[in-house]
Amino acid sequence: ALGDAYEAQARSAPERLDAFWMxxxxxxxxxxxxxxxxxxxxMHYTTVDGRQVLDGVAGLWxxxxxxxxxxxxxxxxxxxxxxxxxxxxxxxxxxxxxLAERLAAIAPDPLKHVFFTNxxxxxxxxxxxxxLAYHRARGEGQRTRLIGREKGYHGVxxxxxxxxxxxxxxxxxxxxLPGVDHLRHTLDISRNAFSRGLPKHGAELADDLExxxxxxxxxxxxxxxxxxxxxxxxxVLPPEGYLKRLREICDKHGILLIFDEVITGYGRVGxxxxxxxxxxxxDMITTAKGLTNGSVPMGAVFVSNAIHDAFMQGPxxxxxxxxxxxxxxxxxxxxxxxxxxxxxxxxxxxxxALDIGAFWEESIHALRDLxxxxxIRNFGLIGAIxxxxxxxxxxxxxxxxxxxxFHDKDLLIRTTGDVVALSPPLILDxxxxxxxxxxLAEAIRETA
Length: 448
Ligand code: PLP
Fold this sequence. Notes:
Layout (H helix, E strand, L loop, with lengths): L1 H10 L15 H6 L4 E5 L2 E4 L4 E4 L2 H4 L8 H13 L11 H13 L6 E5 L2 H18 L7 E5 L8 H6 L3 H4 L9 E4 L5 H4 L15 H9 L4 E6 L15 H12 L2 E5 L13 H5 L5 E4 L11 E5 L1 H6 L20 H16 L5 H14 L7 E7 L2 E6 L8 H13 L2 E2 L1 E3 L2 E4 L7 H16 L3
Parallel strand pairs: 3-13, 5-6, 5-7, 7-8, 8-9
Antiparallel strand pairs: 1-2, 2-3, 4-10, 9-10, 11-12, 12-15, 14-15
Bound molecules: pyridoxal-5'-phosphate (PLP).
Pyridoxal-5'-phosphate binds next to helix 6.
């Protein structure tokens, strides 16, 4: 009866849109033409009016094993009936310990310690704070400068926003963190348009870190944070050799390297993490999204043994890191994550982007001759199609493609600016890839 009451309320939602101030949304426009999803299973959403929509973006880059997975549903249901909440400040419960060990086992050496958060934004702010406190613990407390990159997206906390490099996410919010600087971004359509996989040109852009070292001195720099592949700014790929060079420059100057793998983690580009796919090991990895298959909010920061151990040198009775969230290691999130890892392992989903990546690449590049297409980028199970902006109305062409896909083609995609981004659930097969690009091609063709 309780379930029925909530269902009745959900049915009335289309007439009750006013109070919810939606995130990253043109609220007034949305509330005139809403797009509401009611349920989901495997590769599809069902809308409130009963249409089946193919999910081309794994929700929001997070449902890597697809939707409605039985094992996760059962694990979370069992957990909430057993232990709904337990504190993890000077207390504990079994699951986060077990989960951290399971995560450490799939992480690259030597990133064998895990700090839990509730989101990508919190993971980023956590990693930045650990970097600062790490240097201080080692007697290098003057290393306070944080380096991000243009076009970077690291969530919306003050730390992540400050190291981020997307102008609309920054310009409204004042001066932000002091002492932050940015590397140049690596998008270079003039040299790399229609590259298949990693672009050939641009490894030398990593030398931009040397420029910042010359400007600020390495002794003031705590850490560099980059997305191995950036998603939010419209899928920007690392040129061949770029990440390796960045690692070398960080090592030379004692600067920590943080990979923000909130979208690339948990199989998106093949292997568990992009760090493994690229063969470059950072000092910390920030994750969220795919950790629980998007089912319960959770993030995890992977920390190297050396960083972790630097915090364990003080008196044993003193708290080693004055940081944490009420919900760090929340029982429901841990249960969801454990079931998610089992699902990934059982279905070998970390291999999927490697197995089907060539077909994905062929299929997306078949769209290159469509009207307005100025670049196509792909890596792992990520794809981007960049459209020429309309005169004076940047972003509107891609947004029209997005709404046409959703309303007329039963396909969910995502756009930022004039880039169409794709990141499907890793459970897809070749027929889904055919449907995604077939429907998207129609939508692009039909959009002026
Ligand atoms: N970092 C990266 C690379 C992301 O792509 C995102 C979200 O898209 C975040 C951080 C922020 O994650 P959240 O929205 O869970 O705070």
